[in-house]
Amino acid sequence: MTREEIESREDESMMDAPQINKPKPEEFFNVNYLRIYYGKSNLFPYSDIHKWLSYGHDGKHPGCDEYYFGRREFSFTLENDVYLRYKSFKNASSMEDAIRSHFPYKIDIGAVYSVDPDKRHAYSQTGSNVFTPVERELVFDIDITDYDDVRYCCSGADVCSKCWPLMTVAIKVIHTSLTEDFGFKHILWVFSGRRGVHCWVCDPKARRMTNEQRSAVAEYFRVYKGNENNARKVALMGYSLHPFLARSYVDYLKGFFEGELQATQSIFSTKDKYEKILAMISDEDIQSELRGKWENSARSSLSEEAISLVRWEQLKNTLQSKKHKAPTLRMCVEEIVFTFTYPRIDLEVSKQMNHLLKAPFCVHPKTGRVCVPIDPNNCDEFDPLAVPTLSQLIEEINSGGSRMDVDDDSDDSDTSLLGKSVKFFRSSFLEPLLKSCKEEIESSYKTKIGKSKDSLSW
Amino acid sequence: MEVIRSQKRTASNDVVSNPKIPLYLTAPPLEVRLEEFELFAIDRLRVLKGVSDGLARGKNPKEMDDVVDALWKEHMRHSDASEMLNKDIISHFVIRLVYCRSDELKKWFLSMETALFRHRFRLRNFEAQRAIVGEFGLPYKAVTGAELESLKERLGQVVRSLGQISPSVVNDICCVSVCFFSFLSFAVEAVYYKVPFEEVPDLVAGRRVLIQKGHAFVAGSQLVSLVVTQFRSHISKALILTNRKWMTTIREREKDRLTPIVEALSTTYVGPDYSQSNDYADISLKDIDQVSKSSFPLCMRHLFEKLREDHHLKHGGRMQLGLFLKGVGLKLDDALAFWRAEFSKKVGSERFDKEYAYGIRHNYGKEGKRTDYTPYACQKIISSAPGVGDHHGCPYRHFSEDNLRAALGRMGLSSRGMEDVMDKVRNKHYQLACTLTFEAVYGTSCDVGINHPNQYFEESQKILKSKTPAAPV
């Protein structure tokens, strides 16, 4: 499409935005695009977010708490790192208005408090009217930079198709545990926009968990205890793995380690790499034995991947025969697998109710990518490098390809870049969640009525 | 609970003489003498502070069991079991009243009472434990039949996953001999309770239970987790209610009787008061400089150095250092001479006599209402608020990190020792930091922990004198 064609178009979705030029490919993110995204383009799904965070309290049932949404904290990060906390909104349209007047670079969602965060100063710090969090989703944050010591393709903020599978495995392990072990049903996984994933557990039980209980779940998931001072960062004590770890190992970790990981990371192929692994074996003799084998075979003609596999087999065999030498060797093989593959969550994010976390469907300022949901049952298919960027979305509007009305359930929204994600959010997560919320509101209302009826009878 | 004056107490019919741990669910209908109100509370406070100390020193659960056992025997025991139970209950409720009044106090009380309960529970035998669990009236059922069968393999995995070699850890996990044997053979225990995972957060965190569909399967030997969570939750709620009652009715109603006692109890220091100096501590003026370098704790050393440097100290510093010196054995005449010598250099001896001498005499009980003031304990010093120009307070709390490091360096700490101390400081364990300093300076361990500057001085003198008996230190 030529510049002349764009400029001559009467483009209704550009009504509120200033005239923009055709986007340069390297400009993934800028304020003008952001204004369109949050503007009348119907890209950002305001009403879905509002419905989600209202958890069924839409005022249509007598048991609803119409002030529930208004007690949720939001925070905005503006251009120039200006940070606005304790924002709260009475309803969807005031949330829309606020976002459209600030065009925040980042929107965070906090807890539901005992009173409107906006009005917190009106309440005392002690006594019964205290400003304190009362509900908050159980959340998890997994960032690939926490794996830098075990990925060789990238480091820091970069992510590629070789190391992203670490996130995929993490999702599988954690999601299975959340559903099978903890019995949670309403779980939303979201791409963080650059190099990680967030998880929102929205069951009522989860939202009411205390900090201590959240901490307990986070610790249940914690295996890696590494810093630069210790070589053996995973220490699996005992005579067997806890059933949760055993299942994770058998169903996900072992296969991933011996298959995809070896192929993409070749963790034994050079001396630097294999020394790191040898350091995890707490027996000098075994280390020397393996080192001897590997130093000598350096001139093999096999591919890096093949070398790695061979050495892994050698390591396993050696440890198998020698593991009775010391208790710390008993599960050394598993420890190595866990070190390279097991999820590393950011504990601090999960432990406290008042911790803020980025909202789904935000745009990441450094990459321009939208924080779209990830389907945990299909997470192998997710490609972080194929996530729509802000500039792609704007270009899609410019080209007038599909009507950007995400409230429209017609086939068009399926084919639009963002429409698919919004549709998934709605059908897989929001609808089942709202159904269950409404059931709960109704049943607790009935109980309350029932109780007061009882108190009248004498 | 009724507080009365000097009348004989009538025991209620609720009191039963068996080794039960009361759950403190409701204030009992007992009558308490006013004197006992305070005394019982102080004894229990000694126990709770001992618990706090043990935990801060990182003692493992088995060691804590022993600590609690010893503390309880020392402070709370009574030959008559029903008297002991009364004291237990009364002292808990008094301290609850004292410690409900601020968030910081509440948090401390909750942690210590929960820890105390946990270890007292662990010390009981299985039968007593089951009885206590029963008292909570929890709706959780034991798992039986087909359900238990289907879980057996994974329950076994959990047991094996907890297996360690060292016996101390084995004790840590089991508190009952029956479990000990079944544990060693890695068999699944006989009884498991199905409880919501939220009820046993510490077992979940340690992956010490099987969890399925939101339920945790808690072994009989792990009951302590279950009851401790319940206990903690109950006490937490009770503290809020007690606070409300205190603020709305009790404080005003009792302002001439209980309120002053309650308000004093929260800052009570429960060790020796050093108002009478002893043999080790008669120092004379000519030795004072040397002694300040060799035996003074950091807070007093700092004040002393500043006094020598500035020839002056503000009121807070005069009180803290002055009373300390009294406790150390400086007689009134020597004290007057000491302070005059310094202050005259700045304000002249006439002004000293007019404005400052009175204060010193007052400290020694020779003026005004003639109270013989006691030297400040660490608790008081730590909670003071030094302002501009002040040098009193606790350096571990009130100094910036850089200044503290410099001061510790001047005391002779190695960089390794300093890191340990700074670590304690960061975690706000100021007295432990001082204790570590003591240990580093004198090359010896101090198990009791420092909680009074005069204690630091005395212990230091003991060590130095034992090394060179004749020479002045």
TrEMBL record, chain A:
EC number: 2.7.7.-
GO biological process, one term: DNA replication, synthesis of primer
GO cellular component: alpha DNA polymerase:primase complex
Keywords: DNA replication, DNA-directed RNA polymerase, Metal-binding, Nucleotidyltransferase, Primosome, Transcription, Transferase, Zinc
Short name of any one Pfam family annotated for the protein: DNA_primase_S
Gene3D superfamilies: DNA primase, PRIM domain
Cofactor names: Mn(2+); Mg(2+)
UniProt key word Transmembrane helix: no
Disordered: annotated span: 1-21
Record's keyword annotation contains Nucleotidyltransferase: yes
Protein family membership: Belongs to the eukaryotic-type primase small subunit family.
Protein name according to UniProt: DNA primase
TrEMBL record, chain B:
Assigned keywords, A-Z: 4Fe-4S, DNA replication, DNA-binding, Iron, Iron-sulfur, Metal-binding, Primosome
Gene3D superfamilies cross-referenced by the UniProt entry: 1.20.930.80
BP GO terms, sorted: DNA replication, synthesis of primer
Cofactor note: Binds 1 [4Fe-4S] cluster.
DNA primase large subunit C-terminal domain mapped to chain residues: 289-457
Recorded GO MF terms: 4 iron, 4 sulfur cluster binding; DNA binding; metal ion binding
Binding site residues for [4Fe-4S] cluster: C299, C378, C394, C434
Reported cofactor(s): [4Fe-4S] cluster
Protein family: Belongs to the eukaryotic-type primase large subunit family.
Entry function: DNA primase is the polymerase that synthesizes small RNA primers for the Okazaki fragments made during discontinuous DNA replication.
Protein name from the UniProt record: DNA primase large subunit
Organism: Brassica campestris
